[in-house]
Amino acid sequence: MDTWLVVGLGNPGPAYAGNRHNVGAMVVDELASRHRLGSFKTHRSRARVVEGRFRVPGPKVVLAVPLTYMNVSGGPVAGLLSYFGVPLERLVVVHDELDIDAGLVRLKVGGGEGGHNGLRSISQSVGSKDYHRVRVGIGRPPGRQDPADYVLRDFGKQERAELPFLLDEAADAVEALIDVGLLDAQQRFHAPRP
């Protein structure tokens, strides 16, 4: 079975743990907990990593969160791809997305980085933009708030109440992408809600 690498983006340390920018890391933590994969270990690629399977039989999955700051995530991701022998087409990056309404999850392969420094770093380090992305909508900042400031703030009270549902949906999207492929996963998660 082929190995998949699922990377959740965020910034390291407790000061950032509840930030909107860390929702990718939160999704990876949810997947590890959901599948009882055990504790993350520090890997030499400057990431915390846990390995396992979502179901048996099924492919091996490496879940990872870089221990570097968001804007230099590429080095750890390139190192993990090399170490585990994972080809680019089985890399899944889970990240926050300003251009998607809060609470929605979208999937795609390739495309631009939309000003997301973590994605830009990964694309530069792996030499391609053609990897899977699970985009977790956080919406645009209210009023004239600077987007950079907005993503580095914790989720608001109402958002925190809905966050478990968003993390659950994004974790489901990662599983579907690996289990049934991009097109079927997109049909499921991009369908209009009732």
Automatic annotation (TrEMBL):
GO terms for biological process: protein quality control for misfolded or incompletely synthesized proteins; rescue of stalled ribosome. It comes from the Bacteria. It catalyses: an N-acyl-L-alpha-aminoacyl-tRNA + H2O = an N-acyl-L-amino acid + a tRNA + H(+). The record marks D96 as: Stabilizes the basic form of H active site to accept a proton. NCBIfam families: pth (TIGR00447). Hydrolyzes ribosome-free peptidyl-tRNAs (with 1 or more amino acids incorporated), which drop off the ribosome during protein synthesis, or as a result of ribosome stalling. Catalyzes the release of premature peptidyl moieties from peptidyl-tRNA molecules trapped in stalled 50S ribosomal subunits, and thus maintains levels of free tRNAs and 50S ribosomes. Belongs to the PTH family. This is Peptidyl-tRNA hydrolase. The lineage of its organism: Bacteria, Bacillati, Actinomycetota, Actinomycetes, Micrococcales.
